[in-house]
Amino acid sequence: MRIVQLIWVLVFVFSQNAFAEGLLITVESKYGVKESADRLVTALEDKGIKVAARIDHAAGAKAAGLDMPPTEVVMFGNPKLGTRLMLVNPEIAIELPMKIVIWQDKGGKVQLGYVNPSSLEQRYAISDKDEVFNAMSSALADLSKTAAGAN
Predict the structure, then answer these.
(1) For residue 107, what pLDDT is reported?
(2) Of 11, 28, 53, 131, which has the highest C-beta tally within 10 A?
C-alpha cells in the first residue's frame, strides 16, 4: 500500500513541476475522461498510429483501496519519428512512446495534457531534428484537440 501512495505522490510532484515549468500543454475537453480517451484512441487508429497502452489510474487506485478522480493515460507511438530521436540520444527512450494524460481537475473539468516536445529537445540535447519535434508537436496538438472536441 505504501508503494502505491509513493507512486501517486511522485506523479503529483512531477505533474506540478511540469505545469510550473510550462512543460505540459493542456486542452480542456467537452467530454468526460473516458469519452475523451475513447475519442483519442479512435483518432489515433484513424491515423494508423498504434496505441501502445491505455492506463486507467483511477481504476488502479480503486484496486489499491484509494480514491481519485478519473484519470487515464494513452500511450502511442510512431517509430518513424521516435527512432530517429533515439538514434541521436537513446536516453530519450524514457519519454517514448508519446503520452496524453486525461484527467478531471479539482473544478470538475476534464483536461488533456502532454509534454511539450520542445522541452524534450532541450532536455536531451538533440539538435538537427527540428522537423521531428515539430511533427510531434503538431500531432499531439491535433490529437488533443480532436479528443477534446476543440476542433
Answers:
(1) 96
(2) 11
| Rounded Cα–Cα distance for residues 79 and 16 (Å) | 29
3-state secondary structure the chain: CHHHHHHHHHHHHHHHHHHHCCCEEEEEECCCHHHHHHHHHHHHHHCCCEEEEEEEHHHHHHHCCCCCCCEEEEEEECHHHHHHHHHHCHHHHHHCCEEEEEEECCCCCEEEEEECHHHHHHHCCCCCCHHHHHHHHHHHHHHHHHHHCCC
Question: Exposure of 16 by Cβ count < 10 A (0-12 exposed, 13-18 middle, 19+ buried)?
Answer: exposed
Say which residues have a Cβ less than 8 Å from residue 31's Cβ, sequence separation at least 6.
39, 110, 147, 148, 149
Nearest to 124 by CA among 94, 101, 100: 94
Give the three cell numbers for residue 136: 510531434
Hey, CA dihedral for 102, 105, 108, 109, is it positive or negative? negative
pLDDT, tens only, 36-91: 999 999 999 999 999 999 999 999 999 999 999 999 999 999 999 999 999 999 99
